[in-house]
Amino acid sequence: MRDSALQRSDGWTPGAENVGLHVEGLRFEHGPHRLIDTLNLSLGAEGITVVMGPNGAGKSVLLRLLHGLIAPSAGHISWNGVRLDPEVAQRHALVFQKPVLLRRSVAANIDFLLHARGIRDPDLRRKTLERVGLQDMSHHPARRLSGGEQQRLALARALVTSPEVLMLDEPTANLDPAAVQLIERIVKDSAARGTKILFVTHDIGQARRLADDVVFLHKGRLTEHSRADRFFDAPESAAAESYLAGEIIT
Fold first, then answer.
1. Residues 153, 106: contact at Cβ < 8 Å?
2. What element of type H or E holds 77?
3. Which CATH number goes with the domain that contains 211?
4. Burial class of residue 117 in the structure, from the number of CB atoms within 10 Å of its CB (0-12 exposed, 13-18 middle, 19+ buried)
5. pLDDT band for position 100 (50/70/90)?
6. Tens digits of per-residue pLDDT, 118-157?
7. By residue range, what is the domain housing residue 20?
């Protein structure tokens, strides 16, 4: 495996174009377990980075560290040259696999966040709901939406503040193909508008459709970071090769 901070033989240096994220010596320990192990990573400020790896690889933990929800045991995280702190984290958004919604209407879920951020734009809620295809459901109770609709509402609530970075932790798990297609369209549209996307998925087909580059984790370590076409066509690590072949990795 080559260190992701080194230039590859094909001339591509991950994140070198316009570094948005820089992680150095990142570790996270829970009791006796080291869930993230001395991770170094740089990512560009634009595009879709897909994070992959087997169960227990540390993908969800990594997203929570990058968003500041949990503190690292060691190491540093910076975005656009600024060390991660609550103010920096406010410019990011994180969407979980299971949406966390208020027991209110669709519109009220959006309004709550706008009020909390002090944003006063009477058209912003409408425009954002149109963007995710929920404009005709604004008065529906959020908890009565289908799984795909709830996830689109979670995305709308994340996008309404125009985040610089949108992190998604398996947002399409257990959704039907139509719902998956809608969410992928929203993600691609967000990336096209300049939002940096970090997208965790186990779905190799989905990763092929979305990824500009792939971060592959195994046992809490960064095993590979490469351009998407290179990763899927010629993975450099044995762990990634086995994963893509559908084999159980130990």
1. yes
2. strand 74-79
3. 3.40.50.300
4. exposed
5. confident
6. 888 879 999 999 999 999 999 999 999 999 999 999 999 9
7. 1-91+197-250
